[in-house]
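Supplementary Data S3. Sequence and structure tokens for construct A.
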Amino acid sequence: MTTAVKDMTHGGGGGGAALALNVMRLRTFIALFAVLIFFSLAAPNFLSTANLILMSKHVALNAFLAIGMTFVIITGGIDLSVGSIVGLCGMVAGGLILNGVNLDFLGFAYTLYFNVPEIILITLALGIFIGAINGVLITRLGVAPFIATLGTLYVMRGLALLLSQGRTFPNLVGNPEHGTEGFAIIGSGSFLGLPLTIWILIAVALAAAYIAKRTPVGRHIFAVGGNESAAALSGIRVDRVKMFVYMFSGFCAAIVGLIIASQLMAAHPATGETFELNAIAAAVLGGTSMSGGHGTIGGTIVGAFVIGILSDGLVMMGVSSFWQIVIKGLVIIAAVVVDQAQRRLQHRVVLRQMASET
């Protein structure tokens, strides 16, 4: 494709198409600079250090979900359950800190408490397990990803409500007698002047980028999204690849559940509602194709920054929350339209190049 574009720039009438393609490829960065410039001029103190740190923490939550969503969408799927996984995982972590696990064995009642590292591992394992459920529904039972994850969305949200009968788990400071102190550090801790949340995001993003670019699993993810039948015929275990991406998405959602509960020092069963929409928007805006086979982790991170900056900037300008929803919807539509236009233009460029060579 790169060769084709270069050749077209030297051929007659091809320069315009090549320029349009390059602009479309850079659309996420252009959008990022546009919103930064606009809000820096329209909103006072938008570029202040305190506001930038706060925005980065907001962006990180969306970015975690968007990274997992990117892998899912690249395979041609969708995961609508991530917001509910966030809520359930936060509730499980909060319940373990406050109440532990009540055991009744042979007439002996006992409450088992876990320390914070154990609670983190249990919560992350829960997110992976829910992702595995999505994977089984899609690969083994043949349920369409949209329907499977929509059903999981309702089930997990209902379980989150049942854990506390709809109430909040408050004041998650922990108890030194039970070894449950220190949960707050996940959401409010810092290292070298940056919030710990950002460092966790950097680690997850680098790991995801490495998987996508440097491992067989990453190549298989793109192959499945590009042509699932061809991938299966070439020996790729398609079902295992799909299981992996949904489990990874559940893992990312569990991280967000832990961070939000830690930041608020409370867990609410409604946490994470509509988070899946922001994750999809960030991935698509970052260049991930809804038809599968294309996407980058770096583009998704930039897309998450665009969505996050847009949301915070609109709040600082006092824009109604209703209009914020409308604007986000328009951004998603625009991103998909540009993606489809880019694919059509790439196809025409390739056809012209092939015709010129014959």
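Construct B, processed identically:
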Amino acid sequence: MNVYQEFFNQYDFDIRKSRDARWIDQKCTYDVVSIIADCIVEYLENSPNKEFTVSDIWHSEYARENVISIFSKPDPSLKATNEYDKYFGQPIKLLGYSHVLNVRKVNNRYFYSINNQEILEKIALRPTNALNFLYEYICKVLTDSELMPIFNNFFEVQTKESYQEVVNKFVAFTIENTNINKRTECGRIFTKVINPLAFKLQKLGTKKGRISKLPITLSDLQYNRFNWRDELSGKSKSITRAEHEQTTSQQQIKALADYTINKAKNAVRKFNAKYNDSNPEVKQKSELVKATQVHHIFAQADYPSIADFLENLIMLTPNQHFTMAHPNNNNTQYIDRDFQYICLIAKATTIYQSLTSPSTEKFYNFDNYKIVLNTGLETEEFSEVAHLDFANLINKIDSFYCSPENNKYKSLIKDNKPKLD
């Protein structure tokens, strides 16, 4: 049983009892839920017990600087206040219904506070965590409401008839048990319910009010359908809309990329401060200052697809960063390959400790580190490494670099390789 299931099992999410149709809504895509969770975490960083409103979050300095531009719409007639209120309000409502947040209503105003810090931070850390959270949450609500069998029937028999049946039963249930009385509104909610399940099960879902022709993909679940990693890699999809919309789209891509990468950097910095006393991840006896620099082991410009991976980021001292990782007059476009090797084995040590030590948060992901290595070293060899097989992982890293005797930083190798049990 995972952490989400354990948490949800404490509560009854039967819609027939709550009579709340807004347990999930249009803007509750996994990427948006993750972003809003991050905004809440940042807003309450120095006062985790403080109450807040939806307006507090979307008017916060962090949201204004990092998030609003991601939700910008190209339609000049859009009333930004109303739209932003939905982007922040609907996910916060979901977090309240799911009991991740406490909810207190005074007249017509809702006040929120954190009920489970661990889960909120987990959702905020990675969009994939938010996706897993949504899947477990939707399953629990449907199960408690005795709706799960009708969805299971559709996933077992994927026909137009079975699709129409699950739609009709969901709409009828929602109209009977909540204050929603329009089929169109029920349909919008239905999409956010069925498609995360379909994606997880690799099944057909819904598109434009009909059964999808193909299994639901991750991009089908996103608020922003574009992939900023592909865009930055020069694989952008053709844009056929007006010049104004092209500019807005490009601004959104950059805003999302900047936000995602900066969020990853901040997360690595905080983790290092908490579990490593802000010391450099690359152990070096001559370095007596704290690690203030977040370094991309594989350059952001060269490998945008892994630019926001926690496993591609490492905390270094200024000297390590600007004279060892990026020599040649602090040229950040050039990465020293000998020191890159040191960073990789040092990062492997950090990840090993994170995943195996009972006193350390399970912050890193072993499979993600394999993706970083496959991408940065332009290979598929790391896919063959078994889960948590750090010995094999290190051997493969060694094979891509010069022998230790020829590495100009060979004196650092022993102290930075993982001490495997």
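The radius of gyration is 24 Å. Strands lie at 101-106, 109-114, 204-207, 210-215, 293-296, 313-316.
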